[in-house]
Amino acid sequence: MAREKDADRSVRGKLAHQPGTEAKGPTRAVVIVPVLTRHQRSDDESNRPRLTRSAEARHDEAVGLARAINLDLIHTAVATVNDPRPATLLGSGKVAEFAEIVKEGHAEVVIVDHPLTPVQQRNLEKELNAKVLDRTGLILEIFGERARTKEGTLQVELAHLNYQKGRLVRSWTHLERQRGGAGFLGGPGETQIESDRRILQDKIIKLKHELETVRRTRDLHRAKRKKVPFPVVAIVGYTNAGKSTLFNKLTGAGVLAEDMLFATLDPTLRRVRLPHGTPIILSDTVGFISDLPTHLVAAFRATLEEVVEADLVIHLRDISDPDTAAQAEDVERILADLGVDAGDAKRVVEVWNKIDLLDEGNRARLLADGNDGRKAPPIAISAVTGEGLDALRAQVETRMAGELEELTVTIEPAQFGLVDWLYRNGDVVSRADNEDGSATISLNATHSARQEIESRLHRKNNG
Known about the structure:
- Belongs to the TRAFAC class OBG-HflX-like GTPase superfamily. HflX GTPase family.
- The chain is 41% helix and 18% strand.
- With 463 residues, it is of the alpha/beta class.
- The chain folds into four domains: 28-36 and 52-133, Rossmann fold, CATH 3.40.50.11060; 149-164 and 196-229; 230-401, 3-Layer(aba) Sandwich (Rossmann fold), CATH 3.40.50; 404-461, Alpha-Beta Plaits, CATH 3.30.70.
- It is elongated.
């Protein structure tokens, strides 16, 4: 069956196009952040304790996620949950309280910043008389709106369908409506759950085939890049850490960079020439986030392979965020799932962004802590002001091409075509023009540049 064209429309678009509704402004929404007093351990956490996020930080992030698709937030709240209810997660008193808020504020969507089972989602929709999205559903809605390339659209749709497979339950509006199709919030679906499951499975199989084609194409592009030995440097980090801003600053590209969670989704690659002439391919990737849905990571594996294949990974942190340590841990976990060891100082460079937002006292303290006993202390930068970017470029070039070396070469008159190359790929310290027409040039160049210079001179001498 043909894939539906509007599978990845946003919450606002789906609501606006439901039967019986008219086009209107932003969807009114309520955000609820459940805080469980007894932490529920997930399967992968048995031996890896996680840093605890403050309720305020979780609330701010949930609000940021909701605003990323322009929801009109009429109420946001943190709800302490002492005894999670299997039917609704929240206690009956809280559910009744939020139902009244939804009714008075004419809210159409309720965001619950916590994973919900299909039964919990259905029951909450009945009790609140509004559409309910859990954290996973909200992230998928954002990704659906942000996807621009064919690959990104396919990946988001595959994640949508895998998420929906277990949620083919009767919807809150009419008993004849059931969850089906490619979006969460669409109108009437098939009238039989078995038929829905079959349709979804057929679409999933088709999408996987299409993504496999995309993966093979990406592998071909990667193989072509490897024929021209340009090292790949990937920028990774928590969403809104400033990756796109840094990418734009280093490349001069015009990638969307806003103070918004998941401002960009599809990866971008650009060729960059470092100060001493070393060419690299710089890759900007999708931002990571805590509790990133497993099937979303799986769907985006083709994109994230750019990180796996990268020669160097820049782990960018928003050092001004109070939750920076927990965010770094989340990024490191996802990198570990991809087979990248964040503790490998030869492969990963930790960079502290937004240093300009710290006062002098906090800046001095953090830099002192960062240099305390580390083999490779983090590099402090501001992608906005440009502070520290020279040090970052130098560090990347050292990792890719080796330390700077001093050398002196004599260029014969027949080899003067190399002079321009020397100026572009090294720091020329001095030049002396000799009586025989040759030129003696002293310069500093990276180890790889020195090898290239010697190779070019050898070829000229033997030509």
